[in-house]
Amino acid sequence: MTNNKKDLLKRYLIFLAGLFVNSLGVALITKANLGTSPISSIPYVLSLNFALSLGNFTIIFSILLIVLQIVILGKNFKPESLLQIPVSIAFGFFIDFSMILLNALNPQMYAAKVAYLLIGCLILGVGVYMEVLADVVMLPGESFVRAVVARWETEFGVTKIAFDVSMAVIAAAASFFLARELNGVREGTIVAALLVGFIARTIGKKLHFLPGMLFE
Question: How far apart are CA 27 and CA 14, in angstroms?
């Protein structure tokens, strides 16, 4: 096996591992019952009101984001970006598996919920860092933001914040419409939005030497 193929294999293995770690973080944040991460908020609200699982709605929502990327980018949409489809399916199954693994976790005290939330954010931040480190495929949420940036030449950071806020607002509106109360979007959604990216960036800075050690 050539060095390039070995590097690519390592990258995909790291990405898949990061995807699973990511799903564990999402599941733990969700089990804290203080809201979930912004990108998962719409699938979570839908899962609370319909028969499909969080993982299944995550897959459906991800496919929608991929379709929107195609609409936004048109002929500039790259065929390799269709790899987001199997990645989304795997991520959805990982989320459902992680929810089953953590089924026994049902914190009642607020302090315990906050602890689970913070640990979940840390785990999710590690998963995001692993996906960035692999640098092979992006999840549809980030790819959608990049598509908007490419199409309208906006600033990535501002666009990402606007996207996260939009997801939370839409999820809250859907919750009020479907259940006549706010479920699935709470203070934990805000905490996750602020912490996860910060954790991933901090890990990246601390382990700046790692890509050079792992890849040729």
Answer: 20
Residue 36 corresponds to which tokens in the numbers above?
Answer: 């979930």
Question: Residue holding tokens 């590097």?
Answer: 7
* Residue 184 per-residue DSSP state: S
Amino acid at 25: G
Burial class (CB in 10 A: 0-12, 13-18, 19+), 134: buried
Going from N- to C-terminal start, the domains of the chain cover 3-214
Contact predicate 43/54, CB 8 Å: yes
Task: Write the single-letter amino acid at 75.
Answer: K
| Whether pTM exceeds 0.85 | yes
Q: Got the DSSP string for 18-51? A: HHHHHHHHHHHHHHTTS---HHHHHHHHHHHHSS
Given the structure tokens 């944040």, which residue do they identify? 29
pLDDT in tens, 43-97: 999 999 999 999 999 999 999 999 999 999 999 999 999 999 999 999 999 999 9
Rounded to 5°, angle at Cα 192 from 118 and 47 = 105
